Amino acid sequence: MSLHPSFLLLLVPLLVMTTYGDLCSHRIRNVWTLGGASLAVVLHLFMGGLEGLQTTLFGLGTGLGLLLPFYLMKGMAAGDVKLMGAVGALIGPKLALIAVLATLMAGGVLGVAYLTVRGDIGRWLKRWNLLLTNLVVARGLGTTYIPPATDEVAGQRFPYALAIAAGTLIAVVLFVGQAPAYMQMAG
To answer: Structure pTM?
Structure first.
């Protein structure tokens, strides 16, 4: 089975445009996230009726809810959270859950690659080694996150839309059977 082309016609441009914007300006524009979520509602209603509306709203909530804690801890920008909400609205809650997990893994891989390319992986590893050593020695008593230095690459903005696009596409390609039947093509 494959995802119905109607959903891909919205999903792929949403991911391409937001990733391009994030790479160029470190911003994900509301016109894409809110527009994508709104079009997802319309498409789901048209193709799935009330079940479609439920799917899109639960998908939106899944995408937003799972990334919101990262935003609240200042580990992610609001545009990233809104993009995952729009993606969730489009692909539904089950695929959104898988997409978030795949996104977090893709973000980790891309982050390490970015640090390596920029030549700052050593400082990042030293900082985390110190944190883990303190955690083991002090058994978690009084240990806190050690923020990166102001000149460290790990403290700079990271275009996370790329990780969201990668995670979403992995979820859609590998787990499309988790989508409701009206979202799939027989094949």
So the answer is: 0.88
